[in-house]
Amino acid sequence: MSTDFRTEVREWLAENCPPGARGPGFVPWGSQKIPLSDDLALWLERMAAKGYTVPTWPKEYGGAGLSRDEYMILQEEMRRIDARPALTGRGVNYIGPTILEFGTEQQKARWLPRMARGEGGWCMGYSEPAAGSDLANLQMKCVDEGDHWRLNGMKTWTSDGIYGDWIFCLVRTNPDVPKHEGISLVLVSMDQPGVTVRPIQLISGASPFAETFFDDAVADKDDLIGPVNGGWAVGKRLLQYERSVHGGVNTSGAQVEQKAESIADIAKKYVGEQQGRIADASFRARLTQLEMNSHAYRLTQRRVIAETESNAPSFATSILKVKGAAFTKERAEVMQHAMGSQGFGWEGPGFSREELAANTEWLTTRAVSIYGGAQEIQRNIIAKRVLGLPD
Ligand SMILES: Cc1cc2nc3c(=O)[nH]c(=O)nc-3n(C[C@H](O)[C@H](O)[C@H](O)COP(=O)(O)OP(=O)(O)OC[C@H]3O[C@@H](n4cnc5c(N)ncnc54)[C@H](O)[C@@H]3O)c2cc1C
């Protein structure tokens, strides 16, 4: 079965993946505010028609109904020809799987097929100024107005806020009960007069990041996911889906894996080469350690995927989130180490594009141990939920 499937997939990819969808580069995440090149638009359309944007989702919701083994084969074959994923983002990876798990039949039918086709980019409305690690402290109000929900308050650190079409928000539907018990998860259109997005400058120079304000914004009555006031459990589950993406073990959505450039090749250019090897022994040792960690991490990801009984993530995703973040940071550091002072350029003619990108990458990776829940919080989860240690 697998051999046939591999052959079928290989042939289909060879015929259908356009040249402009191969190699490193932008992967669409559904935003209607970001135009796609012809090749990327065609790739998305073809992959969606095949169900391959969300390969393990059931066919009736836009997936291909693949088993995990088949999903892994699809991934391998895409990597083999350097095909980019056709779609990524918080729609197919965070809120989609959450609706698949907690949504009503009507919500699944309404939302999942359009997510799978990439019709709308999703933002995440969890954090507030006084609710980050202590997320249950969130204050944004959501009031039942009979035929709709009315929303007032603000969210912060909204990644991609300026390009978002939709946002899923954790909101307070009952202020008079213990804080974890009065929370719900609701889907909100960002294209309405009651929603204002104000960009925040990131350390890396880009600013798709934003504060999002809700002033009498509205949400459809049918768009509250899970029970009213039962959103804490639903919202935590969504975080596990998020962390499984960051940990590289997501099988209920669209795993993004692009080939990283070889640090060894870059290092030879900067550090120098002796008889085909990087000249500096201490750098060689650091790079070897990184490559070994990378290999071990990949094997662990594969083992976790193989051992997980369903496509739903477990608390163990926190382990991969912690290790993955540390590894991503280390990789960026090693790259800068290789480039020396050239790796610290911000702008100007003295630096190549590759060097400027390495610095931006290093700055960007500072955030990986914060978003999706800070490292300390992941360690708390591992201590309590994985190791069973007392509070
Ligand atoms: C690049 C980036 C993108 C993000 N995108 C989004 C997004 O799209 N949507 C969204 O809702 N949020 C987003 N966030 C917010 C992110 O989820 C929060 O920054 C994160 O949860 C930490 O919350 P905080 O910033 O309020 O820090 P705080 O909660 O104030 O934490 C500050 C420090 O104290 C530590 N700390 C706090 N409590 C404890 C504890 N109990 N035990 C031990 N240590 C503790 C933390 O680990 C951290 O080191 C993003 C953040 C970043 C950096």
In words, what does this structure look like?
The chain is α+β, with helices and mostly antiparallel strands and 391 residues long. It has 3 domains: 2-116, Butyryl-Coa Dehydrogenase, subunit A, domain 1 (Orthogonal Bundle); 122-230, Beta Barrel (Butyryl-CoA Dehydrogenase, subunit A, domain 2); 260-386, Butyryl-CoA Dehydrogenase, subunit A, domain 3, CATH 1.20.140.10. It contains 11 helices and 10 strands. The chain has helices at 2-16, 38-50, 68-80, 90-102, 105-116, 231-246, 263-271, 281-307, 317-339, 353-365, 375-386, and strands at residues 122-125, 141-144, 148-158, 166-172, 183-189, 195-199, 210-220, 224-225, 273-274, 277-278. The strands form 3 sheets. It has a 4-stranded mixed beta sheet. A 4-stranded antiparallel beta sheet has the order 2-3-7-6, with no helix packed on it. A two-stranded antiparallel sheet has the order 9-10. Helix 4 (90-102) packs across helix 6 (231-246) and helix 6 packs parallel to helix 9. The longest helix is centred in the C-terminal third of the chain and has 27 residues, at 281-307. It is globular, with a radius of gyration of 22 Å. 38% of the residues are buried. The chain binds flavin-adenine dinucleotide (FAD). Residues 124-127, 132-133, 155, 157-159, 367, 370-371, 373-374, 376-377, 380 line the site of flavin-adenine dinucleotide (FAD).
List descriptors:
391 residues, 11 helices, four-stranded mixed beta sheet, Butyryl-CoA Dehydrogenase, subunit A, domain 2, 14% strand, four-stranded antiparallel beta sheet, Butyryl-Coa Dehydrogenase, subunit A, domain 1, 10 strands, binds flavin-adenine dinucleotide, alpha+beta
